[in-house]
Amino acid sequence: MCTGKCARCVGLSLIPLSLVCILANALLLVPNGKTWSSDQLSLHVFLMAGFIGGGLMVLCPGIAAVRAGGKGCCGAGCCGNRCRMLRSVFSSAFGILGAIYCLSVSGAGLQIGPKCLMNGKWDYHFRESSGAYLSNRTQWNLCEEPPNVVLWNVTLFSVLVAASCLEIVLCGIQLVNATIGVICGDCRKKVVGQREGSAH
Q1: Is 191 a residue whose pLDDT tops 50?
Q2: CA 94 to CA 173: how far, in whole Å?
Q3: Element (H or E) spanning 93, and its range?
Q4: CA nearest 164: which of 123, 84, 110, 83?
Q5: 30, 38, 68, 115: which one has the fewest Cβ atoms less than 10 Å from its Cβ?
Q6: Bridge partner list, 121
Q7: Cβ(48)–Cβ(56) under 8 Å?
Q8: 68 φψ region: left (φ > 0), alpha (ψ -120 to 50), beta (else)
Q9: Cβ(25)–Cβ(46) under 8 Å?
């Protein structure tokens, strides 16, 4: 596959993934669809791993990858292709950092568990379980407030973990693809030239 076509496919995959991360982080701020004060929500929610890391920091590389697969402000031709690919190299590395940040925070959020009210006290009551609460659903109902917060957090943080893992893979692919594009250029121009030559 040509580096330009590959870049476009990767970019079109990264953009919806980044939007999924932004949406998941937004939902984490409103457990069970209701608003709560900042001292009643987990710290990992306010670290904005989905908004910043898996969201905006990956959305930019996604857009850059799509532009690298077409005609952008750098113009057409060999130099234009290499210019767009070089920009995509740096943005992909930036995206990998963002996705790793999202994965780290979300993974920690899953392991520690949500902050909730239990026996009249707001705390991280599952912290000492080291993630064992994930396989013991009977403990999930021990949280009195917010309602269903454990299911809410587990579902959305799991979505963030899965999405960020895919983002790391895709950004890594685009990093390699864009590097090849900088060195070798885009094969699409050569293919077009060969077709024109064969037509004559």
Answers
A1: no
A2: 13
A3: helix 77-112
A4: 110
A5: 38
A6: 118
A7: no
A8: alpha
A9: no
